[in-house]
Amino acid sequence: MPARALVVLLLMLNFGVATWWLLRPEPLPPTPWVQPADVPRLQLLDEVVDAGQGTGATDPGVDDAAAGGSAAAARESGVIAVAAAAAGTSDGDAGAADGGAPVAPAAVPVATPAPAALVQRCMSLGPFADAGSVAAARAALRPLGAQRMRARDVVDAPRGWRVVIAPQADRAAADALAARIRAAGFDDLLVVPGGDDANGIALGRYGSEPAARRREASLRAAGFPGQAQPLGDARTRHWLDVAAGAGFDAAAARDASGAARLNDLDCATFVADGGAG
After folding, report:
1. Measured at the alpha carbon of residue 251, what is the angle toward residues 149 and 131, in degrees to the nearest 5?
2. Do the Cβ atoms of 202 and 189 come closer than 8 Å?
3. Is 190's pLDDT higher than 70?
4. Which residues have C-beta within 8 Å of that of residue 233, sequence separation ≥ 6?
5. Percent with pLDDT over 70 in the chain
6. Is residue 92 within 8 Å of 67, Cβ to Cβ?
7. What is the spatial distance between Cα 182 and Cα 246, in angstroms, rounded to a whole number?
8. What's the whole-model pTM score?
9. Of 70-79, 104-113, 230-239, 264-273, where does the model show the most confidence?
10. 157: closest CA among 209, 213, 217?
11. Whole-angstrom distance, CA of residue 229 vs CA of residue 158
């Protein structure tokens, strides 16, 4: 029974496929391609030559070999014309206009930097107080043979940080404030006995600003006016790096620039950093 049902199913499927094949619609014809009006039609070189021969040839005795030779000559002349147009310059055009042969473009000389071997010694002069002193030193070193110079600033960081409370009216007021600070849980403190900060309260020294700022914030949160202060002023020192050739008098350069110190530099590092002239 199952085999018979399978045969009937296959027959019905074949019948359905055959019916679809006979009754299916005809395929649509392809849409013709229309050349856009603003796009010129491309023509091969053979087509251009053949068109010229068809309009300009009047001798019916011209054979196929001659036509083929004309096409080959046209191709060769077209290639030569393209090559000439690519290699043409304004100088060549001027020569042709004067009746002479086109002149090949002259080679443009390329400026090459001075070899690094000319630099014999590099040094750093300073420190200078300000940018004006650096400019004066630069002007004084040029006549002495300095080849390249570069201004450089060095910032000296503070030696450390401290947290303090400003001096109080007298020692009794300072001791009373210190007692309140200790009661709030801050035991690292000292009442300054004398000097410019007498009767002030020192609340610790720190090697970095973030640590001092944290101490200041904790004191202020508890109601005490702590202040974080640097130990020693942060200052900027100005230096002038110099690259010079053989025969450069370093001692005379130091005297002329007014620099207090002269330190040797690695010339390779100086050139790599792009020292300015």
Report:
1. 40
2. yes
3. yes
4. 158
5. 69
6. no
7. 68
8. 0.36
9. 230-239
10. 209
11. 10
